[in-house]
Structure formats: C-alpha cells, structure tokens
Amino acid sequence: MARKTYGIDFGTNAIKVYKKGEGIILSERTAVSTVGSKKRAIAIGEESYGMFEKAPPSIHVSLPLSRGVVSQLDDMVSLWDFMGKKVTGKRTIGHCQFYIAVPADITEVEKHAYSKIITQSETKAKKVCLIDKPIADAYGLGMDVEMVRGLMIVNIGADTTEISVLSLGGIVVSRLLPYGGNDFDKNIQTYLRKKYNFMIGLKTAEHIKKELVSADQINDMTSVVGRDVISGLPREMSVSAEEIYPLTKDIFAYMTSETRSMLEHTPPEISSEIRERGIFLTGGTSLIAGLDQYFANRVNIRVNTTGHAEKTVAKGIGYLSEHPKAAEKYAVPLEV
Ligand SMILES: Nc1ncnc2c1ncn2[C@@H]1O[C@H](COP(=O)(O)OP(=O)(O)OP(=O)(O)O)[C@@H](O)[C@H]1O
Ligand SMILES: [Mg+2]
User: Fold this and answer.
1) Which of 106, 282, 310, 315 to mutate to test the pocket of ligand 1 (most atoms within 8 A of CB)?
2) Band of the pLDDT at 42, cuts 50, 70, 90?
3) Mutate to test the pocket of ligand 1, among 10, 13, 294 (most ligand atoms within 8 A of CB)
4) Does residue 152 sit in the same domain as residue 242?
5) Structural domain of residue 122, as residue ranges?
C-alpha cells in the first residue's frame, strides 16, 4: 500500500498540515477542549479557542504548545487524535509517514516531545521524522537551500521569534527568542484591565493588535466590546494606536537588536552574502505594519517579506515531503 505522507508545522497559534500530492489541507488553531480524566476531545481549533476563558469547569480548554515547546503532551495527543480523524475522515490514520518541523534551538528531549504527539496518539505511523524549522522555512521561501551560501531568516510567530543563519544546506546558528505576537495580545489585555477596568478576551486583544499595532507611531482608533470589571456589565470602548504603541516597542527593539547581534557575529564570507540578499521576515507577526522598514533601519540591511508569512514553514515541510531525496539530508527518523 502506498504510504500517505504528511508534513506538519505545529505552531503555537496554528497547526498547519500539508498532505503530499494535495498541498496545505488544514490550518487549525492550536487549542483543544476535553472532558473527563481521559481527556476526550470534544472540540479543537477555532471552536475550542472560542471556549477559552469561557468554558464551564467540566470542560478543560488547553493551549498545549507554548514558547516553541510541547507544554501539555496529553492535551496535544487528544488534539491530534481529533484532528487526524478530521484530516482523513477515518477513525485512525494508518501506514503514514510524517515530517514534523521543530525549532532548531530547543533540547533533543523537547524535539522528541513533538514526535510523541504522533506516536502516543491513535495514529498508526510507519515513520516519523523531525526537520529543523529554519530549513523548512528556507524551502518554503523557495530558496536553493543546498547552494545558498548565506541566508538569514527571522520567523516571528505567535509565541516565538526564531532567528537563523543558513549556509550550504546547514544551519550555522539559530536562536529561539521567547517573544511573538501573543505577547502583544496579552500586553493589550492587561493594559486595558489595569488602566480602565475593562476586560476583554484574547481574541478581542488579537483583533486590536491587527488593527492598531504598528512598528511606527500611527493615529488610528478602533472600537471594541468588553466587560466593565466594576459593574460587571458589557460596554464599548475606543482604543487608540497611540496608547498601544508603548506596549510593543520594547519587544520590537529586542528582536532587532538580537538580529543585528547575530549578523555581526556571522563569519564575513557568509554575512556578505546575507547583506547582498537582505534578510527574510516570515511568521504571521511579520505582517505587522511597518515592521519590515523598522528592521531595515535598525539592522541596517535590506528586508524581504512574503505574502504567505504564516505558511512558509508548512510550504517548506510540504516541499520536503514531496522530495524525499532532498528531505533525507535533514530528516531525523525516529523509531515508532
Ligand atoms: N495581519 C497581522 N498583523 C499582526 N499580526 C498578525 C497578522 N496576521 C497574523 N498575525 C499574528 O501572527 C501570529 C501567528 O503566526 P504564525 O502562524 O506564524 O505563528 P505560529 O507558527 O502558530 O507560532 P510559533 O511559530 O511562535 O509557534 C499570531 O499571533 C497572529 O495574531
Ligand atoms: Mg511558527
């Protein structure tokens, strides 16, 4: 029987699944709602995330990945069991192989936790391979990874920012910073509660971020509905970009100073090619307005962006699932 092959980017915010021969078939919020001590999943993805901070005590809503690692393995396994059935329409997935993208700058134990999502689930996997995310990201950008002598990618995701330098098919250095777009959502939520006694959910905070967060100071406003902490009643409030800006600027400054420092410590024969090509911003948070220019000014380099910033890792892991010969060099196979 021909094996089905899947490439997976388990992101903090969204799990993206690529199926060989078909492309990206699924992108779901990394959230699961379970019931009972056996953690039976009743909802995943956006439906589960909608229950976050609202569910009754009998339903446990979990966001099982954080800062680039699997923080709740049992919840993640429940999520995958539910998702696997959704992917295939069958009760179990059999005889499949999986390529999983994992951050480069985490421990081997943390990397293996990603493979356990598959091996501890009902999925009957034939083969599970781990591939470092920066390599997948580079393929997703359409790079000739084997040949390129200097490539720098900054993947700004939901919970992490991964800064990597690649050369001739290998990772020269990669650093995982524990900051991403979710930090802006949390900062916005905390600020409004403390300053105005105004409670909003993280979904609303994310909406405010997408409307108002910019790397430059702008003058926009947006209106959101929340709850007054004192009266307990719902109310509407206008939020301005001006007051949100201070909540984000230190994180932007940290990301750019780390990028600049990594570039300064890169051997000149590699950094000269990076300077020629410019750096690449990927990850959903790279879509923040003005961030490319901000990086260009602070790192003093040309910056390239991509329209499919959230999907480059999934596209790259997809490319490697379609080209097993190319994948062979990077894939670390695990016993299943
Ligand atoms: N237009 C936009 N403006 C600002 N932020 C955005 C925009 N679109 C998406 N985002 C943010 O991008 C993040 C999701 O990006 P992505 O899918 O790359 O993260 P992830 O892979 O799940 O996370 P990680 O790589 O950190 O584990 C979320 O925080 C989301 O709010
Ligand atoms: Mg990601």
Assistant:
1) 310
2) very high
3) 13
4) yes
5) 4-136+313-334
**What's the N-to-C CA distance of the chain in angstroms?**
18
Supply the DSSP symbol for 214. B
C-alpha to C-alpha distance for 211 and 71, rounded to whole angstroms: 30
Q: Is the CB of 157 under 6 A from ligand 1?
A: yes
Same domain, yes or no, for 172 and 243?
yes
Q: For 94-131, how does the pLDDT look when each residue is reduced to its tens digit (9 = 90+)?
A: 789 999 999 999 999 999 999 999 999 988 899 999 99
Q: Whose Cα sits closest to atom 19 in ligand 1?
A: 157
Q: Which residues contact 57 (CB under 8 A, 6 or more apart)?
A: none
Pairwise CA distance, residues 243 & 220, whole Å: 10
HSE (side-chain half, CA atoms, 13 Å) at 25: 16
Q: Assess whether the C-beta atom of 158 lies below 6 angstroms from ligand 1.
A: yes
Q: Are residues 249 and 214 in contact, defined by beta-carbon separation less than 8 angstroms?
A: no
Q: Which atom, in ligand 1's list, is nearest to the CA of 65?
A: 27
CB 258 within 8 A of CB 249: no
Q: Domain check: are 83 and 155 in the same one?
A: no
Taking the C-alpha atoms of 152, 106, 210 and 311 in order, what is their torsion angle to the nearest 10 degrees?
A: 60
Same domain, 243 and 163: yes
- Which bound ligand lies closest to the C-alpha atom of 313? 2
Same domain flag for 20 and 67: yes
Dihedral angle sign, alpha carbons of residues 132, 210, 246, 256: positive
- How many domains is the chain built from? 2
For ligand 1, is residue 45 a contact (CB within 6 Å)? no
Residue 155 and residue 297 in one domain: yes
Look at residue 141 and tell me if it is in a domain: no
Q: Is the pTM of this model over 0.90?
A: yes
